[in-house]
Amino acid sequence: MRDVLAYAQFGTFWDRFLPETPFGRAEKEAMTPWTDAVTLTRLWDETDRALALLEALGDDAVRLSRIQHHLKRLPRFCEDAKPLHDEVEIFQFKKFLHNFKSLAELLDPDTRRTFGIAYASEALEHLLDQGRQSAESFYVSDAYSAALADIRSDIRETDAAIQALQARRSAEIQARWGFDFGTRAFLLVPRDAIGRPEEVSDLLRVEPFDETKVAIRVQSSAEEFLLLERRIGLLSQERAAEDDVLEMLSRALRNERERFAEYRKAITRFDLAFARGRMAQEYRLVRPSLNGDAIAISGGRFIPCEEACRELGTNYVALDARFEAATVIFGSNMGGKTVVLKTLAFLQLCAQMGLFVPAEAFATHLFQHFQYLGEGHVSQAPQGLSGFGFEIRSFVEAARDFDAPTLVLFDEFARTTNSLEAEAILSAVLEAVAARPGVVALFSTHFRGVRRLPGVNYLRMKGLNREGLDLGMASTETSTAALETRIRLIDQRMEYHLVLDGGGPGASDAIAVAGLLGLDAAIARRASDFFENGHRDTQE
Amino acid sequence: MVGLEGAAGAVTAITGFEKGSGKTTFLNYALPLVRRAGPVAVFSIGVDGALKARDASAPPPDIRVEPGDLVMTTDAFARAATARFEILEALPGRSTLGRLFLGRALRGGSVTLVGNEHLSVLADVIALVRQEGWAASVLVDGAVNRMTQIAALNPQGDLAFAFTARIDRGNLARAAARIRNLSLLAALPMEPVPSADILRIDGPLASGQLAELPEGVQKLSVADFTKLFLEPAELARTLQRVEISVRQAFRLLCFAVTLRDVSRSEFLDAVGEYADEAVLFNPYEVAC
User: Fold this and answer.
1) What local confidence, expressed as pLDDT, does residue A75 receive?
2) Considering only CA atoms, which of A241, A262, A252 is closest in space to residue A82?
3) Which of A137, A255, B259, B287 has the fewest Cβ atoms nearer than 10 Å?
């Protein structure tokens, strides 16, 4: 699978699919193609619903931004049935509820119905919102328990008493030595400023610092010591009372557990559909359709290539094609064979990942497996195999999937061996693949000698339009600018359309392209001679 | 002597010369002063080694917060604190010490700060605090030798730093050299968009890269001063022949210096003319 993903450059497009919630993002990370029509139809229906919502929002940027705001703020929450949730976990439940409810209020009834977004947790919401706290924060407020409120009141009184005692002692110290602690916990004073440490221990705690200074702190009085002890006891009681509240809230949350699971499912579906909808708007994607017969593409766009062309200011041609069981695509270098294969892979991946597709129309069927065999196979491992050996082993492994519906793309398969044997291998593989009913296979190849087999479509890229083209324009100019001009010329003259291939050698676009790229004119002419004579010799 | 007014309204990283350089002591001193401008968010970079090792004999010092202040800590440390917090945000992942959250103090008291092992989490929290207007100022108790990381804390905004050092006779020369160096670095002029005649360096600049600079380069631009890895003497030599500017500046708040058995004049002689205006001598010290 990862070979096809890499070949189709799908990852960079998938990165632009941006669900906002942690639940949506987790599903996105799984990056799994769907293989059942029911699920995909549901996902596409949901995208349609999201698009209808986006359309209804129209220029209402505020409402759109509020929807995104609440989606972004939905946190994960603990899904285990714990006997005691801590405060952070309860905060997450509360924050989730608030944003879920706010989001539900912003959605129209049809959207809520489609995704099953129905808020019914008013009682729990009220329970989590006791005391003066905001909708998106949580603490165990005094309002939960009279006992807790009493303990906290005692703590406040004790703190005030401690502070009063400390202030009194600080005032005594200031009066006696002039030391003002202010907000500082200790002071460094000259050793001789306080006299003998044991004589000041009723007011100061003295610690050595260096040869000339000592550190002094306010010494706690016996009364303060008692208050500090009392405070420790009260803090312990406070924690116990807080635990009682947390236990009561945890019980309420456990009772609502199933509802939270439903909320999560609904919001995940909405989040993903909303992200798919925004993507469909931004990239002009259309809903694919399922078709038990052939794959039909009208105006299919391979977005990475389309964007690269836009950046380079070159021409991009969308794909119109129909693919059945097995198709061979011939064409010269730079003629667009590979882009055809990549476009199909890209559209199919979009569809099976649940997205709409960049096309005017795309009818397809579903594959359980995706295989790519050709250059740049990402699983390539040394294992002592040559490029050819590796390719053959990859085919052997891929063929294990051919009993189930499989999309398999052969990009210049067997190109690394001699052309006669390559054509023989390719013909045999083609025959074997074409005999598998669930397999759709596309072969791009330069080898014209591939056998013409029944049930296989043979197409070719239309190729270079030579009308009025000076193929002898080669010059010795090798600068980057000149090369760019040549590439642009090839691009302008290349007709990236699929046409039926009737067999026969045809004119060699490769030699023409080589000439346009700056190959010495004499060498290019000689190559043409060899090509034509070679075919004559073969025919004779 | 320098004051701490520059920390009000800013994000200030407190970094130090070495472990025990007085960062948290300085933080506790600065906190009430900075709070005069409004609530303060107090954070820590990373996880304290003693906390991580659960070394009860050397726990990191608590800080004292007042109602309205914000902290990052774990649920367990919050329960053990004398302060009480409302939870404003649960932070992603878990530190080795439990689940981290951003809390606002409802009751003043002491608390142990806990940082996240990933600096990006702290940077996100600072951005959230600024965006929501939850605190007027941010103080970050930084781990030592993390100068290179402070750039990530507030990439778009004002970032100040205080450098704390505990100096005795044993480390006077070393610490003075470091302070001189930082003083030079913090004074580098800022040019967010360097002009065409300035060579823009995107990565770090160390001795090796300096030697490989094209002939005749007179002006250099680095992202910020933490990208310069030059020894004090080499930095001073380089600045005599090349103008170095930074695209993002960090404001030097102060060098907070605690002297042990070293007099102020000895220290000032050691740091020389570069740094004396930025020195904050131990604010806990009382002259009698």
Assistant:
1) 94
2) A252
3) B287
Question: Mutation test of the interface with chain B: which of A76, A84, A139, A194, choosing the one with the most B Cβ atoms within 10 A?
Answer: A139
Give the type of residue at B229: F
Min Cα separation A77/chain B (Å): 10
> Are B44 and B114 a contacting pair, CB within 8 Å?
yes
Closest CA relative to residue A517, chosen from A472, A474, A466: A474
Q: With a cut of 80, say whether residue A267 has pLDDT above it.
A: yes
Q: What is the mean pLDDT of residues A225-238?
A: 94
- What are A492's two structure tokens? 């302008």
What confidence tier does A540 reach under pLDDT thresholds 50, 70, 90?
A: very low
Dist. CA A45–CA A57, nearest whole Å: 18
Of the partner residues A155, A188, A212, the one whose CB lies closest to the CB of residue B286: A188
Over the stretch B75-131, which tens digit does the pLDDT of each residue have?
Answer: 888 988 999 999 999 998 666 678 899 999 999 999 998 888 778 888 899 999 998
DSSP conformational letter for A74? P
Note the pLDDT tens digit of each residue in A314-329: 888 899 999 988 999 9
DSSP category for residue A5: H
Cβ separation of A139 and B28 shorter than 8 Å? no
Chain B residues 224-283 with CB within 8 Å of chain A: 260-261, 282-283
CB atoms B88 and A136 under 8 Å: yes
Q: How far is B86 from chain A (nearest CA, A)?
A: 5
Averaged over A304-308, what is the pLDDT? 92
Q: Which of B166, B109, B113, B181 is nearest to B142 (CA)?
A: B113
Instruction: Tell me if A88 and B86 make a contact (CB, 8 A cut-off).
Output: no
In the β-sheet with A187-190, what is the strand arrangement from edge to edge?
A187-190, A213-218, A204-208
| Nearest residue in chain A measured CA to CA from B107 | A156
Torsion, Cα A317 A322 A326 A329, to 10 degrees, reads: -30
Q: What is the mean pLDDT of residues B236-250?
A: 87
* The amino acid at A151: I
Number of Cβ atoms within 10 Å of the Cβ of B12: 30
The single residue listed with the structure tokens 């005649």 is B197
Query: Above 70 in pLDDT, residue B60?
Result: no
Q: How confident is the model at residue A379 (pLDDT cuts 50, 70, 90)?
A: low
What ipTM goes with this model?
0.84
Q: Which residues of chain B are within 8 Å of residue A183 when distances are taken between CB atoms? A: 29, 32-33
Render A238-292 in DSSP notation, one character per residue.
HHHHHHHHHHHHHHHHHHTHHHHHHHHHHHHHHHHHHHHHHHHHHHT-B--EE-S
- Concatenated DSSP letters for B203-249? S-EEHHHHHTSPTT--EEEESSGGGEE--HHHHHHHHHHSEEEESS-
Contact A139 B29 (CB under 8 A): no
How far are the Cα atoms of A63, A440, A526, B112 from residue A402, in angstroms, in the given order? 49, 10, 45, 61
Q: For residue B204, is pLDDT > 70? A: yes
Q: Shortest CB distance from A235 goes to which of B78, B82, B99?
A: B82
User: How close, in Å, is residue A67 to chain B by CA atoms?
Assistant: 18
Residue of A nearest to B79 (CA): A239
A232/chain B closest Cα distance in angstroms: 9
The alpha carbon of B214 is separated from its chain's Cα centroid by a whole number of angstroms, namely: 34
Nearest CA in chain A to B85: A139
Is B36 near chain A, with CB under 8 Å? no
Instruction: Kindly determine whether residue B87 and residue A137, on different chains, have CB atoms separated by under 8 Å.
Output: yes
Contact (CB<8Å) B78/A75: no
A68, exposed or middle or buried, with CB in 10 Å at 0-12, 13-18, 19+? middle
Mean pLDDT (whole number) for B151-157? 70
Distance between CA A498 and CA A53 in Å, rounded? 38
B107 near A CB under 8 A: yes
